[in-house]
Here is the input.
Amino acid sequence: MRVSAKADYAVRAAAELAAAGDEGPVKGERLADAQDIPLQFLEHILLELKHHGIVRARRGAKGGYWLARPADEVTIAEIVRAVEGPIAHVQSSPPEDIEYRGNAEHLQQVWIAVRASLRNVLEEVTLADLVSGELPGIVGELTARPDAWVAR
Amino acid sequence: MRVSAKADYAVRAAAELAAAGDEGPVKGERLADAQDIPLQFLEHILLELKHHGIVRARRGAKGGYWLARPADEVTIAEIVRAVEGPIAHVQSSPPEDIEYRGNAEHLQQVWIAVRASLRNVLEEVTLADLVSGELPGIVGELTARPDAWVAR
DNA sequence: GCACTCCTGACCAAGAAGGTCAGGAAAGTC
DNA sequence: GACTTTCCTGACCTTCTTGGTCAGGAGTGC
Here is the structure.
């Protein structure tokens, strides 16, 4: 139930691309500098994003990366899935495929709810929201209570 | 963003203990059989639960495991934390400790919201809820929409 | 004393996490 | 056409995690 460095890096780099808008391709090095990410590691991540159709790229002088779609059509969920795989799998299978027996019968519903609650956040927030800081209502609601900000 | 086998096993074993109630200690073997969990692996998991004060145990004939507290006072969140560590850490740190720069500045809020939404489910559901099948309202709401049950 | 059951640490194979390195392949510039 | 720039790709590396197994020790009850 943790967020990997890769996913965090991927979202941060994508945010930079979203902010760059249509000012032309952005070099990997600039992304790495802006977000303090190891360049060579970032290049692998950007390649994955490209393979998933989230980003495009061109080589050579004047080359670089840009978003394949408008920033308000790319969600955080997509980016996380591209680099981490499916969200909230249990034992490497989707929760709807698992059969629970005996007294754990209803556990499936709990894991489904867990996945749904993650999707409620990650599929709502777009790169445009992230860059502008105007996050969807659900985020505001969830972060409003002070105890959302403390560890347990 | 996945649920490990260990966490899944831990919750299932705890559910069996909750269902056993006060009928005395339950042997590890019975838990393993009931939930189809490798016995020796389960013993390690139960030991962790014991160290976290969730379960108690006694050795010898008539020995076994039982819940340290009433089933309606033990949440799924506790069990997951006991075996997997903190929920929704980013790059191994709690999201409130991370400083985001540039265009990723608001990403912190998103990860905080992610954690809060997980807590909303995992801290609400108790072992008593799980065994009885009377899950809290939030679970019902989240699993009501059909697309909560399909993969993406 | 003996059977039973938990307790504990060591070990293990495979994979993921978080990178680094070296070179190749396009694209643009002169 | 040569050269520079930047992405593209695969190989490699170290450390940690996952999902276990094995062997033996230590309480507990009869």
Q: What stands out?
A: The longest strand of chain B covers residues 55-58. The mean pLDDT of chain B is 97.
